[in-house]
Amino acid sequence: MTATEVPAATFTSLDPRTGDVVGTHPVYDDTAVEAAVARGVEAARWWADLGFDGRAQRLLEWKKALVRSIDWLASTITSETGKPFDDARLELALAIDHLDWAARHAEKTLRRRKVSSGL
After folding, report:
1. Whether residues 69 and 44 fall in one domain
2. In this predicted model, what pLDDT tens digit does every residue of 25-57 receive, in sequence order?
3. In this structure, are 6 and 58 located in the same domain?
4. Residue 33's domain spans which residues?
5. How many domains would you assign to the chain?
6. Which residues have C-beta within 8 Å of that of residue 99, sequence separation ≥ 6?
7. Roughly how many angstroms between the first and final C-alpha of the chain, as a whole number?
8. I need a labelling partner for 14 at 20 to 30 A (CA). Which of 45, 73, 94, 102 fits?
């Protein structure tokens, strides 16, 4: 499905606190889902080809983007889930911290290494 095509079916996301419409989203058919999975496989290859340094750089860029948008993102989470704003902000802070940790420790944690079988 392209950006200009209108899906046959949609679902509406409601703010559980107020019942207001937060957004309307497409319901995708099998063909669209298979195409999305194929794009995901292609993206995974691209991500792997970046290597640890390239992935770390992008994770840190993503972290910065989340920090810049934290209040907007927390408001969106609050609208979509009914969570208190401070809880949503805390969840984002934890995600930001995890991104930072992954960017700085992934190579050491995920590199190939020999381990004993324990036998």
Report:
1. no
2. 999 999 999 999 999 999 999 999 999 999 999
3. no
4. 1-49
5. 2
6. 59, 60, 62, 63, 66
7. 53
8. 94
Tell me the two tokens of residue 78.
Answer: 């609050």
pLDDT in tens, 65-106: 999 999 999 999 999 999 999 999 999 999 999 999 999 998
**Distant-in-sequence, close-in-space partners of 73: CB < 8 Å, separation ≥ 6:** 66, 88, 92
**Amino acid identity for residue 19 in this structure:** G
Tokens read off for 55: 């992935």
Distance CA(60)–CA(103), nearest Å, equals 6
DSSP 7-56: PSEEEEEE-TTT--EEEEEEEP-HHHHHHHHHHHHHHHHHHHHTHHHHHH
Question: What DSSP string describes 44-103?
Answer: HHHHHHTHHHHHHHHHHHHHHHHHHTHHHHHHHHHHHH---HHHHHHHHHHHHHHHHHHH
**Residue 56 lies inside a defined structural domain of this protein:** yes
Contacts of 22 (CB under 8 A, 6+ apart): 13, 14, 15, 79, 80
